Amino acid sequence: MADFLTDIKTLRERARREIGKGPVTDAYGADLPRVIQILNEALATEIVCTLRYKRHYFTATGMYSEPVAAEFLEHAREEQEHADKLATRIVQLGGEPDFDPDTLTSRSHAEYDASAGLAKMVEEDLVAERVAIASYTEIVQWLGDRDPTTRRVFEDLLAQEEEHADDLRGLLEQLPAERQEES
Questions:
Q1: How many angstroms separate the Cα of 112 from the Cα of each of 43, 106, 138?
Q2: For residue 34, is pLDDT > 70?
Q3: Which of 55, 56, 78, 133 supports an S-S bond with 72, CB 3.0-4.6 Å?
Q4: What are the tens digits of pLDDT across the range 94-124?
Q5: For the chain, which residues make up each domain, given as ranges?
Q6: What value does the mean pLDDT take over residues 120-149?
């Protein structure tokens, strides 16, 4: 047994004594209140992105709108799944997920968008995905080894946000230039 490991008796006693802390043990190395705040900001980001994608899905029009709208709907569903994962992690850490609609946009890293043109919708969604990618990358780096579970949550979200950005870039490249100029 390595010298740096806590003995089993101490682990058991501590686990029993601090049972109310759930999964947060003495081995947790991150600033818990700050992690919960960051998770709530990411939750707001995912909710705003879900709403933006839903709006774009319902308002997309024009000759090229059908496949683009389908992509918006798929991304909306995946962003909602992200929000659910973040809310679950907040609760696991003993926090409360903040779904307050009055403060969603001020806490969100990404902006809500009500663009009318199809290409502009895709462009704004791509910008939002790039914002999420940048912020989630920073969060992953900040968490490091101090909270590996939350880091993995963000790594999973980051991978999907990168897929979204790639999808949107592909859609934007497929839209005719004159259509892009009209929007």
A1: 14, 10, 22
A2: yes
A3: 56
A4: 999 999 999 999 999 999 999 889 999 999 9
A5: 29-174
A6: 96
Q: Please report, to the nearest 10 degrees, the dihedral formed by the alpha carbons of residues 7, 8, 13, 14 taken in order.
A: 60
Q: Please enumerate, by residue number, every residue annotated as part of a binding site.
A: 46, 82, 129, 161, 164
CATH of 29-174, one of 1.20.1260.10, 3.50.50.60, 1.10.10.60, 3.40.50.300: 1.20.1260.10
List residues forming the annotated binding site for Fe cation. 46, 82, 129, 161, 164
Structure tokens at 58: 């319902």
CA 20-94-136 angle, to 5 degrees, is 145
Q: Backbone phi, then psi, for 127, in 5-degree steps?
A: -60, -45
Which amino acid makes up residue 173? E
